[in-house]
Each structure stands twice: as structure tokens, then as C-alpha cells.
Write a structure and sequence with these properties.
The chain is α/β, with parallel strands linked by helices and about 400 residues long. The chain has 2 domains: about 160 residues, VC0802-like, CATH 3.30.2130; about 220 residues, Rossmann fold (3-Layer(aba) Sandwich), CATH 3.40.50.620. It contains 13 helices and 16 strands. Strands 1, 2, 3, 4, 5, 6, 7, 8 and 9 form a 9-stranded mixed β-sheet that branches. Strands 14-13-10-11-12-15-16 form a 7-stranded mixed β-sheet, with helices on both faces. β15 and β16 form a beta hairpin.
């Protein structure tokens, strides 16, 4: 008898012909995230089993809770003795210190096992009733005892740990997240990762108007997201010349709109260069002036690249709640301005006119400025103990 960790897949079981690909990717992600531990993994079409050193189980579960694609985590007693008496005794050992009510549920994946699931549940339940003060409640028990009988062993566990669900990271390709220092974009990143999308991160800075503290804030947000992501990189774009050029030469009421159009032009080029299939941002419709539908339409006009807006229908309180859950909120509210909050016009346009935008932009040849920004992007490797930067 030993303790093992049983993983149930959840949503990826809907994938039919692609299911093995999703399971294989989940297994790889688990290996990557648990690289500091000693363990083995076995998997099949319905379950995955992790065989760890017993002293590592709590730490491993802490990591598994942050891996997308896992529906449920269970610490099991595993035994290759499939006799009824052994199953009864192991079950009693798990339940003898419990209080209140319980229910036994048996699943036989090995249909050749001679005792039917209902009969096993009844026999084990009777044994527990006889030897404890517990009561049966089949509708709302305090403790649910699970017995899974397979060809190679029996697995017994109680009260499962809920996983994050979603799809394993990288099964749906890679996207580029426009990561500011605010509350919204990290949440948008988290929700995108949940759908199986691996992320790279893009940050626009305007030194000296923005500070090194603002950059470090974004690095720390990206590192928080790396708990769920895999192998992410942060691309840092120096946006100073472009932003100053817009501010000094063009209609300041349109500063935010034109600035964001330039960001998307850069984002598209970097997305293509880094084999990203989409751009992600933290926009929520109507939340600020640049997020009205007419503003979004004017900004999108510069690219036909897919742009994902996971928060488009969320209100701010919903977003804040998720940011606290993923531990980014306290970082996001640190008082260091990013390039989207400096040079803010007194009256930013809410319903921008595309013809006027094009007339304004025609006054400046932005191509050399855009190319300079792209050619001097810095990379921050988020998975090294010491961060470093070098040229892209």
C-alpha cells in the first residue's frame, strides 16, 4: 500500500479524436512544473497517476493546483490487493477519525471484477457504520469515500481537491499579451492561459517618463502569470520617441487613440516574429474612453491580426475579484505610472473619427520610429532565477 495522486481530466475529455494530444501535453506540463521533484507518471484515456515520494505530496499538490487541464486532484491509498477485506480495512482506516455523515461511491473500470459497484459500496459502507459513529447521507454527506477498482490496483480516496480546469497550456498555440501595470491585463492573461494558450508578454515603456519601478512591476506581474503559463518571455518596447512625437505634433485629444494604433502596429509585427497566433489585451467594453466600440474599431483598423479581449463583458468588480484570486491585485495597484497613464489628454475623444485620425497620422512618417522600436526590443527571461535582458 502506498499513497499516489490521481488526476481527473475534466473539459479535455470532450476532445474525442484529439484527446490523446491534450493528455500528452498535460503530462508534459506536469513534468515541467514538477521538475524539482522525484516522481513517476502513468496515464490512460481517463486518468493520470503520479507516484511521488510521500513527503513531497503536499508540495506537489500546491503546484498541481496551478496547472490548467486538471479537473480534480485526489490523494489515494493504492493497493494491489483487490480483496474485499483489504478494501474494507483500507476504507475504514481513512474514515475512522471522521465525524458526521458519509457516502461510499465505487467505480469499476475493470468490469471483470466479480463484485458490482453498488454491492461494494454497500458492503464497505456497512463495515464503516459498524466500526464508527458515522451516519450515512447519500445526498449531502460531509465526507465522500471513493473507491476506484482497476485491473492493476484499487485506489481509495476521500473529498477531492478541485483543479483549475480549462485546457493544458500550449494546446491552442501561443499569443502575445499586451501587459500594462494595471489590474485588467494580468486577468486577461490568466483567462487566456486557461483556454490552453501559451503567452508571451509585451510591455511598452517610455523612459524617463516611466520609471524602472514601473518596469519591475510588470515583470512581477508576468512572473505571477508564469505560475500558470510555461516558458513565457517579456518583450519590452521603448515607446518614448513615438509617444513624444504624437504628443508634440498631433491633435492631443486623439493622443490615446493614435498611441494605441501605433502599439498595435508594433504588436502585430512582434506577434508574427515570435510565432504568436493572436494578440491579447485587457480591454472591457466601455470601461474607459479608449474602450468604447467606436474607439476599438478605430484602433483595430491598423491590423487584421486576431485580437482577443477576454474581459470584454466583465465589470470592474469581477476583474478585481479574479486579480485577488491570482495574486496580482496588490502588485497592480502599486503607484507607478505606465505609458498609458502619462500625457493623458484632458478631454480624450470617445468616438474618434477615422478620417481625422488618418489625416493626423499623415503629418508624420512613423515607419522609421516603429522599426527602431521593434529592432531594439529587450527580452526579459522570466524563468531564470536572475532576470537578464538582451536584444531581440
Amino acid at each position: 500500500m502506498r499513497k499516489v495522486i490521481l488526476i481527473k481530466y475534466g473539459e479535455l475529455t470532450t476532445k474525442k479524436d484529439n484527446r490523446n494530444f491534450f493528455i500528452k501535453t498535460l503530462k508534459k506540463n506536469i513534468f515541467d512544473k514538477l521538475s524539482s521533484f522525484s516522481f513517476e507518471i502513468k496515464d490512460d484515456y481517463y486518468r493520470m497517476f503520479i507516484y511521488p515520494n510521500e513527503e513531497d505530496i503536499d508540495s506537489i499538490i500546491g503546484v498541481l493546483k496551478n496547472i490548467f487541464g486538471i479537473h480534480e486532484i485526489n490523494v489515494c491509498l493504492m493497493s494491489d490487493d483487490l480483496s474485499v477485506n483489504n478494501i474494507k480495512n483500507l476504507s475504514l482506516g481513512l474514515m475512522k477519525d471522521k465525524e458526521g455523515t458519509f457516502k461510499v461511491e465505487t467505480n469499476r473500470s475493470d468490469k471483470s471484477y466479480p463484485i458490482k459497484s453498488m454491492d461494494m459500496s454497500r458492503d464497505v459502507g456497512a463495515h464503516i457504520l459498524k466500526n464508527t459513529n458515522l451516519k450515512v447521507d447519500v445526498h449531502n454527506p460531509l465526507t465522500k469515500l471513493n473507491i476506484e477498482i482497476r485491473h492493476e490496483a484499487v485506489y481509495i480516496y476521500e473529498n477531492s481537491i478541485k483543479g483549475l480546469g480549462g485546457y493544458p497550456v500550449s494546446t491552442l498555440g501561443r499569443a502575445l499579451l499586451m501587459l500594462s501595470g494595471g489590474i485588467d491585463s494580468p486577468v486577461a492573461g490568466y483567462l487566456t492561459i486557461k483556454r490552453g494558450v501559451e503567452l508571451y508578454y509585451l510591455y511598452f515603456e517610455s523612459r524617463p517618463h516611466t520609471s524602472i519601478e514601473a518596469r519591475n512591476k510588470v515583470i512581477n506581474l508576468a512572473k505571477k502569470l508564469e505560475k500558470y503559463n510555461s516558458n513565457g518571455k517579456l518583450l519590452v518596447v521603448n515607446f518614448t520617441k513615438i509617444q513624444e512625437t504624437i504628443y508634440k505634433n498631433l491633435d492631443t485629444d486623439y493622443l490615446i487613440t493614435i498611441m494605441r494604433r501605433m502599439m498595435y502596429r508594433i504588436a502585430e509585427k512582434l506577434a508574427r516574429k515570435n510565432k504568436c497566433l493572436a494578440i491579447v489585451n485587457g480591454e472591457s467594453v466601455g470601461q474607459v474612453a479608449s474602450q468604447t466600440l467606436s474607439s476599438i474599431l478605430a484602433v483595430n483598423n491598423v491590423t487584421n491580426y486576431p485580437i482577443l479581449r477576454p474581459l470584454c463583458s466583465f465589470d470592474k468588480l469581477d476583474i478585481i475579484e479574479i486579480s485577488k484570486k491570482i495574486d496580482t491585485y496588490d502588485i497592480s495597484i502599486l503607484p507607478y505610472e505606465d505609458c498609458c497613464t502619462i500625457f493623458v489628454p484632458r478631454h480624450p475623444v470617445i468616438n474618434p473619427n477615422l478620417k481625422h485620425i488618418l489625416e493626423e497620422e499623415s503629418k508624420i512618417n512613423f515607419e522609421p520610429l516603429l522599426e527602431e522600436a521593434i529592432n531594439n526590443v529587450e527580452i526579459v527571461n522570466l524563468n531564470e532565477k536572475e532576470k537578464y535582458t538582451d536584444l531581440l
